Amino acid sequence: VQRRPVIAIVGSGTAAEAAVSNAHELGRLIAEQGWVLITGGRDAGVMKAANAGAKQAKESLTIGILPDASTEVSPGVDVAIVTGIGEARNNIIVLSADVVVASGVEDAGTTSEVALALKNGRPVILLGTTDAARQFFSDIGGDDVHIAVSPMQAIQLVSNCLKVRRKEEE
Amino acid sequence: VQRRPVIAIVGSGTAAEAAVSNAHELGRLIAEQGWVLITGGRDAGVMKAANAGAKQAKESLTIGILPDASTEVSPGVDVAIVTGIGEARNNIIVLSADVVVASGVEDAGTTSEVALALKNGRPVILLGTTDAARQFFSDIGGDDVHIAVSPMQAIQLVSNCLKVRRKEEE
Amino acid sequence: VQRRPVIAIVGSGTAAEAAVSNAHELGRLIAEQGWVLITGGRDAGVMKAANAGAKQAKESLTIGILPDASTEVSPGVDVAIVTGIGEARNNIIVLSADVVVASGVEDAGTTSEVALALKNGRPVILLGTTDAARQFFSDIGGDDVHIAVSPMQAIQLVSNCLKVRRKEEE
Amino acid sequence: VQRRPVIAIVGSGTAAEAAVSNAHELGRLIAEQGWVLITGGRDAGVMKAANAGAKQAKESLTIGILPDASTEVSPGVDVAIVTGIGEARNNIIVLSADVVVASGVEDAGTTSEVALALKNGRPVILLGTTDAARQFFSDIGGDDVHIAVSPMQAIQLVSNCLKVRRKEEE
To answer: Which residues on adjacent β-strands are paired with residue C145?
Structure first.
C-alpha cells in the first residue's frame, strides 16, 4: 500500500507576518502536490494560514492534531484529532509526518516541534528563521536540517527528502 | 464550519468471526453516510475489517490512530497518525470521535476504549457483546450506552446520537 | 538494584462509603509493607483516602499521577507527577505499578484503569465490586484477575503476585 | 500542604564528560537541599550521573520518568514512572518540576525538554551550554532563561526561582 505522503507545517500561533504569509503559500503548494497537510490545528498564526492555503487546492486533505478538546480549531482543518495530551501532542505531529517544515522558529512550542522531529529522525526544513535558530539547529541536527529561502524552495527540499525516505523503505 | 462527523469503530485485533464480519459491514455503512472512520489502525481483527469495509465506499476517508511507529498498519487506512503513546492512544480515538461503536467487547483493550469513551461523555453503541458486557457497561454508562442487534441498527443509533450532539452544540 | 515495589490503588473520585473506607485501610497496609503507593492523586474519593491511609505509616511514600496541572492534589501525596495528558494518565498509573488494587469499580475511569492494567499484563485485585463487574472482568482478564473480600486479603494477594513477578524477573 | 520542591535535571544520554560531571554534582547538591530530583530516568549520561550524585545524600528522593517499559533504568532512581509515551514524556518531566536545570544542551532530546519547560512557564537554568544554545534560548525564553557557570551557582539560581514561585502561589 502506498499512502499519500504527510507533511507537517509547524510554527507559532502568534507568528510575525512573514511567517504567516509563508505558511499560507506552503499549505497551498503542499496540497497541490497531493500531499496530506498535518498541523497543530489551532485557529491562529502559522497553523491557521497553512490550513487556509491548503484548502485553496482541490483534493486537499488537512489534519489538525489538537492539544485539547477545548482548542479552537482552524476552519481549514478537515479532520480534527483531539489528543487531550496538551503540548505533548507536538510529538504526534512530527511522528506522523514524513517531513517537517518550520515557518519561522519564533517560540518555545515550535522549538519543541523541531527538536522532537530531529529526535525522531524526521528531516526538517527551516524557512525564514533567525541566524541564531539556524546556527543552533544545524549544530544539533546535522544533515537532517535543511535551509530554504522561499516556500517554493522548501517544497523542492521536501520532495527530495521524500525520495530519500522512499528509497530507504525499499 | 461544519466538519464531517467522525465515527470510531473499536474492537479486538483477535476478534471472533462475527465481530470481524460486523466491523466490515459497519465500516462500509459509515463511509456510505459520508462520515469519517477512525480506528486503532492496526492490520488485524476489527480494525482491519472496518477499514477494508469503508474503502468499498466512494469518498471514504479512514484515519488510523496507531500506538507506535512500529505498528503494522491496515491497508485500508488513508492517513496514519503515529501517536507513540502505546495503549494511551485509545483515549485519542474516543476523544476524536463523535460516537463510538464497539464490535464486540472481547478483550481488555476494547474495554478500555469503551470505558474512556464513557468517561469523556461520548455515546457508545455496543454490537454483538456478551450479556456480562452489556450488563456491566449499562451499570457504568447509563444513558450513554446503546445496544444494537445489527450493523444497520447501529448506524441508525449513531445517526440519532449525531442529531443530539448537533442540537447540543447549537 | 532492587527498587521498592510500587502498588496502585484505583477507584472512583465519587466512590461509595465502603470503597473509600477500604481504600484508607489498603493505603495504610500497603505503606506498612514498605511498598510505594501510586494513585491518580486527586483530592477526592478513593485516591484521597488511600493517600491519607498511607501517610499514617512511617516511611510511607506516595506518588500521585495527576491528569493536569490544574488538578487539586490529595494532601497525602508526597510527590505529584503532572502528566498533562488527562485520562490517558490512567495508562501511566498501571504501567508504573507491579500490582493494581481496585477499591470498587463504580465508574468509567476506574473501568479503564482495570482494563489498561490487564492489557499491560499487570495483576489486578478487585475488592468490593458488584457481581456484574466481577463476572465481566473475570471473562476478560482470566488468571490476572483476583477477588478479595477484605483489605487484609487484598494485601495477601498483592504479596503473592509480587513473589510471582520477582520469580519471573529472575 | 507544603510538598518538597521538585527539581528536574535534563541533558543528553550521550553527553560529553563535562556535562556528566556537572550533572553528578548538581544531583548531589539538589538532594542535599532536601529537594526531590526528577530526570528522564535512563541509565546513561546526564540522567545516570544526576541520580548517582543524588544518592550520595541522605534523605535523597529520585524519580525517573521513563519513556517506555523496556527502558534500562538508572540504578540511582528510587521510583520509576513508566509512561509508555516515548519522547512525549519530556513534557511530563518539565510539568512536574518547579525548576529545570539543563546540564549541557547537546542533542535534540534535551532541546525539546528546555523548549517544553519554557512553553509551560517553567524557569530554566542553563549550565555548560554552547554560545549558540545560550543565544537561541535567550531569544526564545526571555526572563525565564538563566545562565549558570558552575553547579553551585545553578543551585543558587534554583533557590531564587523557588522563592519567586512560592511568592506567586501565595
So the answer is: C124
Helix (H) or strand (E) holding A132: helix A131-141
Question: Do C127 and C104 form a contact (C-beta atoms < 8 A)?
Answer: yes
| Position B32 pLDDT exceeds 90 | yes
Comparing CA positions, the residue from D74, D53, D123 lying closest to residue D94 is D123
Grid coordinates belonging to C42? 486527586
Q: Environment class of residue D72 by beta-carbon count within 10 Å: exposed (0-12), middle (13-18) or buried (19+)?
A: exposed
Q: Which of A78, A79, A81 is nearest residue B92 as measured by Cβ atoms?
A: A81
Give pLDDT, residue C26: 98
Is the predicted pLDDT of residue B137 greater than 80, yes or no?
A: yes
In tens, the pLDDT along D105-150 reads 999 999 999 999 999 999 999 999 999 999 999 999 999 999 999 9
pLDDT at C170 over 90: no
- Distance (Å) from the C-alpha of residue A93 to the closest C-alpha of chain B? 8
Residue B13: other Cβ atoms inside 10 A: 16
C contacts of A112 (beta carbons < 8 Å): none
Of the candidates C88, C112, C132, the beta carbon closest to that of B136 is on: C132
- CA–CA separation, D62 and D55 (whole Å): 8
The C-alpha cell at B28 is: 462500509
Inter-chain residue contact C119 with B135, CB threshold 8 Å: no
B87–D87 CB contact, under 8 Å: no
**Model confidence, pTM:** 0.97
Question: How confident is residue A169, by pLDDT bands cut at 50, 70 and 90?
Answer: confident
Q: Are B90 and B111 in contact (CB under 8 A)?
A: no
Regarding beta strands C99-103 and C6-10, do their DSSP bridges make them parallel or antiparallel, or are they unpaired?
Answer: parallel
The Cα–Cα gap between A8 and A30 comes to: 9
Helical H segments across chain B, by residue range: 17-32, 45-54, 89-95, 108-119, 131-141, 151-169
- Phi and psi angles of residue C66, each rounded to the nearest 5 degrees, phi first: -85, 145
Give the C-alpha separation, C18 to C52, whole Å: 16
Q: Which three cell numbers stand for residue B137?
A: 457497561
Helices (H) and strands (E) in chain B, counts: 6, 7
Are the CB atoms for A130 and A107 separated by under 8 Å? no
Work out the minimum CA distance from D57 to partner chain A, whole angstroms.
33
Nearest chain A CA: its distance from D140 CA (Å): 5
Distance CA B78, CA B63 (A): 6
What's the grid cell of residue C2? 532492587
How do beta strands C6-10 and D62-66 pair? unpaired
Distance CA(C116)–CA(B113), nearest Å, equals: 9
Residues 6+ apart with CB under 8 A from C160: none
- Chain C residue numbers with beta carbons less than 8 Å from the beta carbon of A87 are 84
* Confidence check: pLDDT of C168 > 90: no
At B72 the pLDDT is 97
* Interval B33-55 mean pLDDT: 98
Q: Chain centroid to CA A11: how far?
A: 7
- Strand pairing category for D99-103 and D79-82: unpaired
Query: What ipTM goes with this model?
Result: 0.97
Say how far residue C102 (Cα) sits from the centre of its chain. 6
Q: How far apart are CA C139 and CA A87, in angstroms?
A: 38
Q: What is the pLDDT of residue A2?
A: 84
Q: Which residues of B touch C135 (CB under 8 A)?
A: 132, 135-136
For the cut 80, the answer to whether the pLDDT of residue C4 exceeds it is yes
| CA distances from residue D95 to C86, D113, D114, D126 in whole angstroms, order as listed | 13, 10, 11, 17
Which residues of chain C have a CB within 8 Å of the CB of B120? 87
Cell of A57: 487546492
As a whole number of angstroms, the distance between CA A168 and CA A170 comes to 6
Average pLDDT in the D31-55 region? 98
The maximal CA–CA distance of chain A, rounded, in angstroms, is: 41
